[in-house]
Amino acid sequence: MYHKGTLTPRETITRTIRLSPQVDLELQQLARQERVSVNYLVTSSLQKLTEWDIAAEKFGFVAIPGFLHAKMYSYFTVEQARELGEWAAKNFGRDFILFRFKKLSLDTVLETLRLLGSRYARIFSLQHTFDGRVHTIIVKHGLGAKGSIFNEQFLTSIFKGLLNLDPESERTEDQVVIRLKTPREIGKPTWSESYRRQPSESRIREEIPISYGG
Amino acid sequence: MAHSLTELMFEVEKAEPARVLSETRTIRLEGDILLKLEELANQENVSISFIINKALRRHVEWEIYAEKFGFMMAFTSKMRRIFESLTDAEARELGSQSAENEYSEFINFWFKKIDFDTTVKALELLGSEYARSFKFEHSFDGSMHTIIFKHDRGPRTSAYYAEMVKVLFNRLNLKVDTVESDQQVTIAVRN
């Protein structure tokens, strides 16, 4: 057994659970197929539950076939795709980040994009790199040209409208690339906290108004 | 007297719950996952074991297939807005195309054959707590199946689903009548 407050996040404990025979059998078959342990399957599905499923259900996500999503964009005009992207950033983007992480910052925006690009949501696949000066965010969505316009507008509106940053973007038919110059590394304290801690010289060079948009 | 007999019967039922066969399995969990599960169990007033079972059932019944098939998550308000941008004719055309392609592939992928039962099961799955595309109701009065999709996403979504089910059932040589409202589609299927 364990005691609350004494268990650290990376410690592991063993627990005996009762499973329906059908679920147990299917887990064993799946583990054999995928060449992983049953324990790995159990842990990954529980991780998904705590990281994604609960929030997704409460926030109103629905599952749709990916090809259908792509087809929907083909009915749009360029202007409609752009409007939808801006609307999604202002409404869904802002609301979901606050719902899931309780604050708007570069870290929480990036964490949200990671979640949307994860195996859990599968909305796009995301690659994020940081060379010490520029964040490069690559979103591969497979939704075609109009889907690319939507995603470009969604991403730039999130960074501009919610974080008051100035992203550069490029798009091709199935991919959007965002480049973002920022004064700090990911994983350090949040944008506003690190801003306050900057020495005066670097603050002058990197000063960006902190506003979370309208 | 009758009242106390009823009470007694309830007590007996409580004292002898139906036995459910189960397997015990020992698993190793990281501390943070367990703490979150415990928090969740407290919030929902259920046991951790119940939550673990629910998550694992979801994994084996939905998640592995959904990922392989290419289901993705979409924010419901965005879906509503996408459908509202379409004309009625476009929504119906999309519904018809989806039935012929994506949803036929979906039924085949999941159930390995397309017939009335697997079509209804597939629609039920779309309305399940896993996919949440709509709330699903199905009843049968001996001669007619009545199926309801409650989606709450406006008239174009109704047009889309109405056309989709017409194509799915018509090709099984069944007659379909639909009643569309802004938030729901009611479907009557007869031989």
Topology:
The complex is a heterodimer of chains A (214) and B (191).
Chain A: E1 12-19, H1 21-34, H2 38-59, E2 61-65, H3 66-74, H4 78-101, H5 106-116, E3 125-130, E4 134-140, H6 144-162, E5 168-172, E6 175-181, H7 191-197, H8 200-206
Antiparallel strand pairs in A: 3-4, 4-6, 5-6
Chain B: H1 2-15, E1 23-30, H2 31-44, H3 48-69, E2 71-75, H4 76-85, H5 88-111, H6 116-126, E3 135-140, E4 145-150, H7 155-170, E5 175-180, E6 184-190
Antiparallel strand pairs in B: 3-4, 4-6, 5-6
Helix pairs in contact in B: 2-3, 5-7
What is the N-to-C succession of helices and strands of chain A? EHHEHHHEEHEEHH
Task: Indicate the low-confidence ranges of chain B by residue numbers.
Answer: 1-16
| Largest sheet, spatial ordering of strands of chain A | 3-4-6-5
Radius of gyration of chain A: 21 Å
Could you tell me the mean pLDDT of chain A?
Answer: 83
| Largest sheet data of chain A | 4 strands, antiparallel
Query: What is the percentage of strand-forming residues of chain A?
Result: 15-25%
Distance between the termini of chain B: 51 Å
Structure description:
The complex is a heterodimer of chains A (214) and B (191). Chain A has a four-stranded antiparallel β-sheet with strand order 3-4-6-5, covered by helices on one side. Mean pLDDT of chain A is 83; it is low at 185-214. Chain A is built from eight helices and six strands; from the N terminus they run βααβαααββαββαα. Chain A has helices at 21-34, 38-59, 66-74, 78-101, 106-116, 144-162, 191-197, 200-206; strands at residues 12-19, 61-65, 125-130, 134-140, 168-172, 175-181. Chain A is α+β, with helices and mostly antiparallel strands and 214 residues long. In chain A, helix 1 crosses helix 2 (38-59) and helix 4 crosses helix 6 (144-162). Chain A has two domains: 22-59; 66-206, Muramoyl-pentapeptide Carboxypeptidase, domain 2. The longest helix of chain A has 24 residues, at 78-101. By secondary structure, chain B is an alpha+beta fold. Chain B folds into two domains: 30-72; 76-190, H-NOX domain, CATH 3.90.1520. Helix content of chain B is 58%, strand content 20%. Chain B has seven helices and six strands; from the N terminus they run H-E-H-H-E-H-H-H-E-E-H-E-E. Chain B has helices spanning 2-15, 31-44, 48-69, 76-85, 88-111, 116-126, 155-170, and strands at 23-30, 71-75, 135-140, 145-150, 175-180, 184-190. In chain B, strands 3-4-6-5 form a four-stranded antiparallel β-sheet, with helices on one face. In chain B, strand 5 (175-180) and strand 6 form a beta hairpin. Strand 1 (12-19) of chain A pairs antiparallel with strand 1 of chain B.
